[in-house]
């Protein structure tokens, strides 16, 4: 079972946290901090698995993570999940985000936390993997979005929106916002024989 | 920098384009959230962030509580609240609005509302109750999206007690035409199964249907359930093996639609699940395993492509192959696969390869041998995780020959790591290896020193405990143990002479104990020098009180020879007035002992041996003292729980406003009090504290913390005998093979590397030292950790101290054992303060204590029974009713006269205090009843007459046969006593010849079992019948418990036979009516927190359906109907004399809505189950 899904950026700012088991508010924050601490000090060329910290529940649990540009995607799972399977699930998740947001970046995750949660809910339900097929997930999300559009009715003023955001002063945000290598597939391995 | 900004801005429109359609409302929201985020990013400190969020939350609060806020704005506010919560700031005022949003909004708002609810609330949050109806409505909605959302929220957060309300609707969804709905419903049911397995028991058949669903997605979802079920009980699902194999075959063969492919691998996640299930099913089962050989082989073959996900499948495949009954061809292929993993340059695969090796190496050590060079390389890998995994692997292949190298590697790793989890884990492993395989004393002590200094105060407490025990018990040869101790002394002196400021407390404690106990072994060592070192320790800052106590007690042992008196004087001056009672007490003891040399040599003899220790658990040596004190007018001793109870009664009102006026809560109150007495004398409280950690850990191990462990909170601490692993040791064959293996190993490695450079040579040396002794012939004996290794430190088999009760001293008292005497002398006024009576400790004594009764009576014996003291009499009367055999039977006898509660449930409440009200009567009618209930009644008499006279009038079940063999027939009868279930077992000799030495044993983990009488019978004449009885008490709620037992007897001389039997008891056997008034019911109802609701079948009869139904329940379940008002009825019962369970029944359409509440978690569930059953069977 998946115990928790965390996304945070290189500075440890949480961008999404979803717990499938109940922890107190304080423990959750502590888990996020501890996980960031564990994950962030690892090099790029080491394995993507980490034996769980004391906090999230001892030896049975492990952290499986991927690092994309500015963001860390961390899944905390117990022994009933396949490590490599989850690793690819993260990839599917990110690819799906990329499709839904058209070239996803950290800002998308900040401004559309609810959408990201909705996408996640189509993949993982109550800690169990529900769907791994990207197209299926997108179909579900689209169906929901259609309702949204029909409800919203007349289009607003996109131009105003853009200018509003442009005027907005974002001193720190712009750094590494675009995740350039988001669509990079897992590099193929040399022939396995 | 500027181009980065530009890039961002160019990205923004595309980001905003998503929002452009929703329109103006959305725009303002974006800017609000946007400005929040912008402000946050501008901040430089955490403090500023806090301030900002506080302001934001205030604004939010205003917004959500304003009536003018539209749904859309609310939606936006909710997203902001989510953001704040994610950053760790509580926004609890929005919770209710999140629920409102989910209740009232349109689909769009609902989605945000549900999302917020699932992020904010947890399963036990009260507000969730408000959501139940909304979920129910949405589940029945015609809008698919609403149904989906409801199912999602249900599987995320849903109150356990409310599951019955929506269960039928969710079940219905299993047949929904849309596969996505079916799939979500399956997962929701799985979630229900995880949190409340009782409630979904009836739909297992539907799970099976889901497994056969025409849509592969639904089938995949159902595998989650099956994986869990099979993990719990593989035997129940063996017949499904064929289906799983067929499914996997089809998936592997590419029969699934192309949609299910991921990187052209057909449904990889599905394959992984199936392989796991197969691995579980085939474990140790040849016939089942044979079914899957083919498909595993095919999976291995097919999965040879080059994507990450195929490796995931391969890994699972390999694991499955090694889990099931082995087939050599497959294992070979799998081994090759593991090799590829280990050798892979991809680090993730290397990690998994090592994991697989670790798993496999227990079956096939050769595999590790093949990859030894890779393993060596991994030891130096820059990635700590890989290193750690390698050490784990090495841990599994450790033997006497490579232990030094492996432990060295582990210690090296320990030096580098700073993560607590790793340290605790590794330290434990090193200690285990050191104890098992240590080559010599020196190494062992050195290694343990490292363990203690690294492990510090975090490590498992049993490591120092077992180390000290090993030292104290010694090895098989006396000389050997002497050497070991001597070496320890040497080494610790050296440690203390160096800078020891950084040493952890635990290590200091060990050092001081060893020095105190064994420093006399070292010839020519000046005691003063040791004392000096220890005194220095005593005065150092940062040393805890606990450690100081250890040091003081060591100094006490060293209080001999020149300068001893001065030292004692100095210590007493320094610590005799310490604020800490423990230290003060130690100092006082020191003073006493230093003054009285005789006492000292008697209490602290040199070279205490373990075997000679005899503990007088009944403290009989104190009898005279107690008698004298009592004669002098001292108050008699009262056990802590009793004192507590008395105190409780005094303050009854302030403690529990409602409960205490009722008999029910009184009894439950005394139960809890026993575990948490607050009225304790200082010293016993202290020592109680020091034992607590080990009690919590449930370890039956030595506890060496603190100094005095003889006294605990509950009085004399009972001590459980640890079954010694007196390992019969055969010298492992490894030593013999070592030389040849060593040769073989290095041969192989040199072949692998034709051009050995310098570095390689080193590695090969390492390899040969690591893998020495690993080989095919001795593989099994090396690998199985459970098998007896050739242990250096063999403990002497200890004679079990057999006392009638399970109360013996704590083992750790090797050094202090005799000191308990001293303690008792020192506590001058101990009668009132100190627990003198060994009190059977509920949390310590094993549950099944047939000897319990006898130990009880024994312990009481040292209260003079001449009855001169009023107080003493009073005490006996107030004794817990269930404590002594006499009490129970007499109480029963007393009750019988009044008629049983169950037989006539309208009778008066039996107050627990009743026992003290009529003290004299029962001792009189006691004797007659007891005597007549003896054995040897003949079979010809009606079985009912066989029942002991005092039980005959109580309600009882029919007599059932339990077991029988050629000479003995066992039958049983349940007698429902108010405070317990009495199990009467009839032993009938079916032959003519007498049977000798019959002994009955009964076990049940969930129940408290106490033998009343007759479980040991010397002779049973031909055709004779004997009766033995047990009282069974249920404390927790269990729907059904199984008890097992054996009867052993001698049919002929010297020919012992055993007859096993087992029987099941249901909760219904333990339910008793609770007679209370409607008013009391109302009060109780409010004070209970555990509840369950469900709709039950309503029985139709000629009378009012409610009355008919309740009567039916009363008939089968011993409930008490408190009142019936219109269409509502209230019913009460309780678990024996313990927790009450209240039922509130209301006619609701065609069914009976029942709401159960109790103070005991789980009880409502269980009672509901039996109500349901009773009505269905009616």
Largest interface: A-B, 97 and 106 residues
Give a count of the beta strands of chain B, DSSP E runs of length 2 or more: 20
Rg of chain B (C-alpha, Å): 36 Å
Give the count of helical stretches of chain A. 6
Morphology of chain A: globular
Into which percentage range does the β-strand content of chain B fall?
5-15%
The name of the CATH topology of chain A is Beta-Lactamase
Under the CATH scheme, which class of chain A?
A: Alpha Beta
What is the number of strand segments of chain A? 7
**What would you call the shape of chain B?**
globular
3D structure, described in words:
The complex is a heterodimer of chains A (193) and B (1178). In chain A, the strands form 2 sheets. A 5-stranded antiparallel β-sheet of chain A has the order 2-1-5-4-3, sandwiched between helices. Chain A has a single domain (2-144), classed as Beta-Lactamase (2-Layer Sandwich), CATH 3.30.450.60. Helix content of chain A is 42%, strand content 18%. The longest helix of chain A has 19 residues, at 83-101. Chain A contains 6 helices and 7 strands, in the order E-E-H-E-E-E-H-H-H-E-E-H-H. With 193 residues, chain A is an alpha+beta fold. Chain A has helices at residues 25-40, 83-101, 106-111, 113-123, 134-152, 158-167; strands at 2-9, 14-19, 49-51, 62-68, 71-77, 124-125, 128-129. The longest helix of chain B has 20 residues, at 46-65. Chain B has 52 helices and 20 strands. Among the domains of chain B are: 28-120, no CATH class; 128-228, Leucine-rich Repeat Variant, CATH 1.25.10.10; 474-597; 949-1068, Gamma-adaptin ear (GAE) domain (Immunoglobulin-like); 1074-1175, TATA-Binding Protein (2-Layer Sandwich). In chain B, strands 5, 6, 7, 8, 10 and 12 form a 6-stranded antiparallel β-sheet that branches. In chain B, strands 15, 16, 17, 18, 19 and 20 form a 6-stranded antiparallel β-sheet that branches. In chain B, a hairpin with a 2-residue loop joins strand 13 and strand 14. The radius of gyration of chain B is 36 Å and the shape is globular. The chains are: A alpha+beta (193), B alpha+beta (1178).
């Amino acid at each position: 079972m998946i115990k928790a899904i965390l996304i945070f950026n290189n500075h440890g700012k949480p961008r999404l946290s979803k717990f499938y088991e109940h922890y107190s508010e304080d423990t959750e924050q502590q888990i996020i901090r501890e996980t960031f601490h564990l994950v962030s000090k690892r090099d790029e060329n080491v394995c993507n698995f980490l034996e769980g910290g004391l906090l999230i529940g001892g030896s049975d649990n492990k952290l499986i993570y991927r690092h994309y540009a500015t963001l860390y995607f961390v899944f905390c799972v117990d022994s009933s999940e396949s490590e490599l399977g989850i690793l690819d699930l993260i990839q599917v998740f990110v690819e799906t985000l990329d499709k839904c947001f058209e070239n996803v970046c950290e800002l998308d995750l900040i401004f559309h936390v609810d959408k990201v949660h909705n996408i996640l809910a189509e993949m993982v339900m109550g800690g169990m993997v529900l769907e791994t097929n990207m197209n299926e997930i997108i179909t579900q999300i689209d169906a929901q979005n259609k309702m949204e559009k029909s409800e919203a009715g007349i289009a607003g003023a996109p131009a105003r929106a853009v200018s509003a955001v442009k005027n907005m002063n974002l001193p720190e945000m712009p750094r590494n916002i675009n995740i350039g290598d988001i669509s990079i597939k897992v590099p193929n391995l040399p022939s396995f024989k | 920098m500027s181009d980065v900004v530009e890039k961002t801005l160019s990205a923004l429109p595309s980001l905003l384009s998503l929002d452009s359609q929703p329109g103006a409302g959305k725009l303002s929201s974006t800017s609000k959230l946007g400005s929040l985020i912008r402000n946050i990013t501008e901040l430089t400190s955490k403090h500023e962030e806090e301030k900002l969020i506080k302001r934001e939350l205030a604004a939010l609060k205003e917004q959500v509580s304003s009536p003018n806020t539209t749904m859309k704005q609310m939606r936006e506010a909710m997203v902001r609240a989510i953001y704040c919560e994610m950053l760790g700031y509580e926004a609890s005022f929005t919770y209710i609005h999140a629920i409102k949003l989910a209740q009232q909004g349109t689909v769009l708002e609902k989605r945000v509302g549900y999302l917020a609810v699932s992020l904010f609330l947890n399963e036990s949050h009260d507000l969730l109750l408000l959501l139940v109806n909304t979920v129910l409505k949405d589940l029945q909605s015609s809008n698919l999206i609403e149904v989906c959302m409801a199912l999602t929220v249900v599987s995320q957060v849903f109150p356990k007690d409310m599951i019955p309300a929506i269960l039928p609707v969710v079940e219905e969804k299993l047949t929904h035409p849309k596969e996505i709905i079916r799939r979500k419903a399956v997962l929701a049911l799985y979630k229900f199964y995880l949190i409340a397995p009782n409630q979904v028991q009836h739909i297992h058949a539907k799970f099976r249907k889901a497994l056969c669903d025409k849509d592969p997605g639904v089938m995949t979802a159902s595998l989650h359930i099956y994986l869990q079920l099979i993990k719990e009980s593989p035997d129940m699902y063996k017949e499904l093996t064929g289906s799983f194999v067929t499914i996997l075959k089809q998936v592997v063969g590419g029969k699934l639609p192309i949609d299910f492919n991921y990187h052209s691998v057909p449904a990889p996640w599905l394959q992984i699940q199936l392989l796991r299930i197969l691995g579980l099913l085939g474990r140790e089962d040849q016939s089942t395993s044979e079914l899957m050989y083919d498909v595993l082989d095919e999976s291995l073959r097919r999965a040879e492509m080059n994507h990450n996900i195929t490796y995931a499948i391969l890994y699972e495949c390999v694991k499955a192959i090694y889990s099931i009954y082995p087939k050599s061809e497959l294992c070979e292929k799998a081994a090759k696969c593991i090799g590829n993993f280990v050798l892979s340059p991809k680090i993730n695969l290397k990690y998994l390869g090592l994991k697989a090796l670790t798993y496999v190496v227990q079956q096939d050590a050769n595999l590790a041998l093949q990859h030894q060079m890779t393993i060596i390389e991994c030891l130096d890998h820059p990635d700590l995780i890989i290193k750690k995994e390698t050490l784990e692997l090495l841990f599994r292949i450790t033997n006497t020959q490579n232990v030094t190298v492996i432990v060295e590697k582990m210690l090296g790793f320990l030096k580098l790591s700073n993560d607590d989890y790793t340290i605790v884990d590794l330290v434990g492993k090193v200690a285990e290896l050191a104890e098992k395989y240590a080559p010599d004393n020196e190494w062992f002590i050195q290694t343990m020193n490292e363990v203690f200094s690294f492990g510090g105060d975090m490590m498992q407490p049993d490591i120092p405990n077992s180390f000290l025990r090993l030292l104290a018990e010694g090895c098989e040869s006396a000389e050997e143990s002497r050497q070991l101790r001597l070496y320890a002394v040497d080494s610790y002196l050296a440690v203390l002479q160096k800078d020891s400021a950084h040493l952890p407390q635990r290590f200091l404690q060990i050092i001081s104990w060893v020095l105190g106990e064994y420093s006399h072994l070292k010839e020519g060592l000046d005691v003063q020098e040791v004392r000096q070192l220890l005194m220095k320790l005593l005065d150092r800052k940062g040393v805890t009180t606990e450690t100081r106590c250890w040091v003081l007690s060591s100094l006490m042992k060293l209080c001999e020879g020149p300068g001893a008196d001065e030292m004692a004087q100095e210590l007493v001056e320094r610590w005799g007035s310490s604020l800490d009672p423990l230290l003060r007490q130690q100092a006082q003891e020191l003073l006493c002992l230093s003054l009285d040399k005789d006492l000292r040599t008697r209490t602290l003899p040199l070279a205490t041996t373990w075997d000679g220790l005899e503990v007088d658990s009944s403290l009989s040596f104190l009898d005279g003292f107690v008698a004298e004190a009592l004669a002098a007018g001292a108050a008699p001793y009262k056990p802590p729980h009793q004192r507590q109870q008395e105190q409780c009664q005094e303050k009854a009102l302030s403690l529990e406003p409602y409960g205490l006026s009722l008999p029910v809560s009184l009894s439950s109150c005394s139960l809890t009090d026993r575990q948490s007495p607050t009225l304790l004398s200082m010293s016993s409280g202290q020592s109680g504290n020091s034992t607590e950690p080990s009690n919590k850990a449930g370890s039956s191990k030595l506890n060496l913390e603190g100094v005095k462990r003889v006294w605990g909170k509950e009085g004399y601490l009972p001590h459980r005998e640890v079954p010694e692993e007196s390992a019969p040791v055969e010298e492992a064959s490894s030593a013999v093979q070592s030389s040849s293996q060593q040769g073989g190993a290095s041969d192989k490695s040199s072949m692998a590397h034709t051009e050995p450079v310098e570095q390689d040579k080193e590695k090969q040396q390492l390899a040969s030292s690591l893998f020495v002794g690993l080989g095919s012939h001795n593989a099994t004996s090396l690998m199985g950790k459970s098998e007896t290794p050739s242990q250096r430190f063999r403990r002497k088999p200890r004679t079990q101290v057999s006392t009638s009760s399970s109360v013996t001293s704590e083992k750790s008292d090797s050094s202090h054992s005799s000191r308990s005497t001293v303690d008792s002398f020192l506590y001058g006024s101990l009668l009132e303060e100190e627990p003198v009576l060994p009190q059977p400790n509920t949390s310590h004594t094993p549950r099944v204590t047939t000897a319990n009764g006898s130990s009880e009576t024994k312990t009481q014996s040292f209260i003079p029974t001449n009855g001169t003291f009023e107080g003493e009499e009073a005490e006996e009367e107030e004794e817990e009713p269930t404590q002594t055999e006499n009490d129970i039977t007499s109480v029963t006898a007393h009750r019988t006269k009044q008629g049983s509660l169950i037989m006539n449930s309208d009778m008066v409440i039996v107050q627990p205090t009743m026992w003290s009200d009529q003290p004299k009567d029962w001792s009189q009618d006691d004797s007659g009843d007891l005597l007549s209930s003896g054995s040897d009644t003949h079979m010809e008499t009606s079985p009912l007459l066989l029942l002991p006279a005092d039980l005959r009038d109580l309600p009882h079940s029919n007599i059932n046969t339990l077991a029988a063999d050629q000479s003995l027939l066992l039958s049983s009868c349940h007698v429902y006593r108010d405070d317990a279930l009495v199990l009467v077992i009839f032993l009938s000799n079916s032959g003519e010849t007498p049977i000798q030495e019959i002994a009955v044993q009964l076990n049940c983990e969930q129940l408290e079992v106490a033998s009343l009488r007759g479980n040991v019978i010397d002779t049973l004449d031909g055709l004779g019948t004997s009766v033995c009885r047990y009282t069974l008490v249920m404390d927790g709620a269990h729907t059904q418990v199984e008890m097992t037992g054996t009867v052993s007897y001698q049919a002929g001389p010297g020919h012992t036979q055993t007859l096993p039997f087992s029987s099941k008891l249901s909760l219904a056997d333990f339910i008793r009516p609770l007679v209370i008034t409607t008013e009391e019911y109302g009060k109780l109802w409010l004070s209970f927190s555990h509840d369950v609701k469900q709709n039950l079948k309503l029985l139709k009869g000629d009378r009012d359906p409610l009355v008919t139904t309740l009567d039916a329940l009363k008939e089968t379940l011993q409930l008490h109907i408190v009142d019936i008002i219109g269409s509502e009825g209230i019913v009460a019962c309780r678990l024996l004399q313990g927790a009450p369970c209240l039922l509130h029944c209301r006619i609701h359409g065609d069914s009976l809505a029942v709401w159960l509440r109790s103070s005991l978690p789980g009880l409502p569930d269980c009672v509901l189950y039996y109500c349901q059953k009773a009505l269905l069977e009616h």
